Amino acid sequence: MPTETKPRRTQAERSEAMRARLAAAAYETIAQGGFNALRMRNVAQAAGVSQGALMHHFPDKNALVLAAVEQALALAEQDSGVGDLAPDASPEAVLRALLDDLHGFFFSDRFWVAIGMTMEAAKDAEFYPVLRGSVSGLRTPVYEGWKNRLAAAGWSEEEAQGAVRSAAAMISGFSIRRFWAEPDALEETLTQQWIAERLARR
Question: What positions does the domain HTH tetR-type occupy (predicted)?
C-alpha cells in the first residue's frame, strides 16, 4: 500500500512557524535569565538557528521584546481555566475559580516576563506606545470569558465586569507585594471580604 505523503507547507506557513519558534525562544530566554539575557545570540542559540535567520524575522531587539511579551500573554491565555468550570458551579465557586485563575497568571513567569519587558520598554518613548498598543488587548479574551461566566451565574454585566477588574487589581497587588513582604493573614482577609462583597451584589 503506498505511503501517504504529507502536503508540503507553504512559504507563509513555514515563516509563521519559524516566527513562533523564535518568539518562544525569546520568552524562555527572558524567563530563565531576565532582561539582560535577551541577546540576539542567546535567542538564536536557544532556537537552534543562525543570528541571520533570527534577524530576518526580528531585525532588532525591540521586535524581539514585542514577540516575547506577546508569547507570554498567549501562553497565559492557554493556561486560563475559564472554560474548565462546571456549568452548575455555585456563585461562590465561580468567584473562587476566578481568583485562582488570576493567581495562576499574576504569580507566573508569564506575568513577570510581560511586566518586566513593559517596564523596560517604558524607558523608550518611541517603542513604549507600540508595545502597549500591541499587547493591551491580549488579556481581553480571558477577562471577557470570566465576565460572561459571572453573568451566567447571576451577576449583571456591569457587576461582572467590575468583579473581574477588581479581582485582577487585588491579585496583581498581592503578587507585587511579594517583593517586600511574605504572605500573611491580611491577604486572606481581603480575599474573603472581596468574595462576600461580590456575593452581596449578586
Answer: 16-76
Residues 34 and 100 in one domain: no
Q: Per-residue pLDDT tens for 88-99?
A: 999 999 999 999
- Does residue 64 fall inside a structural domain? no
pLDDT digits (tens, 9 = 90+) for 123-138: 999 999 999 888 888 8
Instruction: Please count the structural domains in the chain.
Output: 2
Q: Looking at residue 82, what DSSP letter applies?
A: T
Give the dihedral sign, CA 38/44/46/47: positive
pTM for the full predicted model: 0.86
- φ and ψ of 108, to 5 deg: -115, 165
| Nearest CA-CA partner of 35 in 63, 65, 10, 5 | 65
- Number of Cβ within a 10 Å radius of residue 44: 21
The 3 state secondary structure assigned to 145-198 is HHHHHHHHCCCCHHHHHHHHHHHHHHHHHHHHHCCCCCCCHHHHHHHHHHHHHH
**Residue-number span of the structural domain to which 18 is assigned:** 8-59
Q: Which amino acid is at 59?
A: P
Task: State the Cα–Cα distance between residues 17 and 46, nearest whole angstrom.
Answer: 15
The residue among 169, 173, 116, 105 whose CA lies nearest residue 139 is 105
